Amino acid sequence: MKPNEHSWVLITGASSGFGEEFARQYAAQGKSLVLVARRLDKLEALSAQLREQFAVEVIVEQVDLSSIPAVIELHKRLSERRIVVDVLINNAGHGLQGPFLDQPLDRSLAMIDLDIASLTALTHVFAADMRARKRGHILMVASLLSFQGVKNFAVYSAAKAYVLRFSDALHRELKSDGVIVTALCPGMSDTGFAQSARQTITPALKMVMMQPQPVVRAGIRALQAGRLSVVPGFGNKAMTVLTWATPRRFHQGLMARIMGA
Asked: Which residues form the signal peptide (predicted)?
């Protein structure tokens, strides 16, 4: 991206966790931001902080991303304002721990709507603009769980597997059009996600838990470098190697114990 071009970074799920940290790190680079989430009060508080601290332009969009029509309307509003989204951070997502059959069906389907359908729609509308301009960057926030099916995380790990494979395919499809697609696969991180997912924090998870700052920094650097994907943290990298090197029966059982499933 040329320094004098007025382009924007759109971050979904920007009101907390990784999304908030992406906003802070891109603001520190002087980028103009479009912050998208459902919680308007948190978005407005964050945008005020970023404007004051970094003197950047920030647009706040309160959107229920589980609604595809809402995603289409978001794209339409930004296009009408001539907001050029050069970087799309597909961060919004929802997780839930527990046996699949013990969860209400509507909660599992809502997870699929947000983690898969919404991400797909956002990518389609904004990547089409990027391809037309022959320039753009898309970061897909997947998960360490995307590498395997994990007991008591059946829908979430499957949804994140979709995100990772979708990202892998688009990385190759769009590269010749000047659009970079990268997957970020974080492990356990101190973002508040575990609490909202009602996840058990085992001693093993506490040992490998990362802070959001280095995870987000690794994602931004990988995207800027045009990498296919990145797994932040030595322990998380070791787990991915173990996944590739061992039978599914072994590493899925190990992950189930680590995750307290």
From this structure: none
